[in-house]
Design brief:
By secondary structure, the protein is of the alpha/beta class. The protein is 43% helix and 17% strand. The chain has helices at 16-24, 36-49, 60-71, 85-88, 93-98, 115-121, 148-161, 172-179, 184-187, 213-225, 234-246, 251-267, 288-296, 318-332; strands at 4-5, 53-57, 76-81, 101-105, 131-138, 164-169, 192-196, 207-211, 271-272, 279-283, 300-301, 307-311. It starts with a strand and ends with a helix. The structure holds pyridoxal-5'-phosphate. InterPro entries: ArAA_b-elim_lyase/Thr_aldolase (IPR001597), Low_specificity_L-TA-like (IPR023603), PyrdxlP-dep_Trfase (IPR015424), PyrdxlP-dep_Trfase_major (IPR015421), PyrdxlP-dep_Trfase_small (IPR015422).
Amino acid sequence: MPLIDLRSDTVTQPTAAMREAMMAAELGDDVYGEDPTVNRLEVWLANELGFEAALFVPTGTMSNLLGLMAHCERGDEYIVGQQAHTYKYEGGGAAVLGSIQPQPIEGETNGSLDLAKVEAAIKQDDFHFARTRLLALENTMQGKVLPLDYLAAAREMTRRRGLSLHLDGARLYNAAVKLGVPAREITQHFDSVSVCLSKGLGAPVGSVLCGSTALIAKARRLRKMVGGGMRQAGVLAAAGLYALQHQVQRLAEDHANATRLGEELSELGYSVEPVQTNMVYVQLGERAGQIKGFMAERGIAVSAAPRLRLVTHLDVGTAGVERVIEAFAAFRSH
Ligand SMILES: *Cc1c(COP(=O)(O)O)cnc(C)c1O
């Protein structure tokens, strides 16, 4: 019985064809700018998303950090969601390593930040205050897709108020596939975008930061400083390129699997939040403590939480989803 791991879409294994692409990758020393595969990935993604330049980095955390540090100096401030990954799940890196003060804003249920609240949080030019420099959004945000007209409004407001706009697009492609638009329809509104190759796209490692030539040059210096300059990194970039060229459209399968899972759990009487992409959130309440062990006995890995997150990905097939539904039915009557 193969393990079904629903904790995250980070748990995917590289496919056989992806491993072949990694084996065949031409390599060089990327710190010298001489890894042809890394260079190809950076040029390819910058082009695809409509930016001048891009930078391959080991993780999404580093990609966001470099983006924030490239936009903001010490004593600057960025506005961010209270539940955003950059604020809550990255060890406070922007503050610790960048001396950038976060100004968190409570998010809306659709995953956006109310732009009126954001505007109200922008500090006046006064030496008492940190300088508000940047707004950081996340898309998808806990599986929710930010509407394109919202992004256009965020672009307009940030331009008007002199702020830069960064996207934590760890799951950018889930949003694009869900909307049925090229990813650049989303990224055109931003000054910088961080994309994870290691989530639903299925690469083992890697993220890419995209932006202007000047911003990426700054980020490249910062990448070296934080120890992210990698050498024959093309072996990893090859996996990312393969994912971008072959494993984007299949995200629709993950979304369909999540939708089916959500519908069936709801049918079984669970309280399930509306599903948009590859995440199903289930309110377990006081039974949260029992779920992990119960599912583990049935070969299903979940993280125990009162608001349980189930994530579909390329290693969870339709048969796997049926097994999960059966296990939840058993848990219900247990
Ligand atoms: C996973 C994730 C990141 C960071 O990626 P790592 O590669 O795990 O550092 C950033 N933002 C979001 C929304 C994520 O889900």
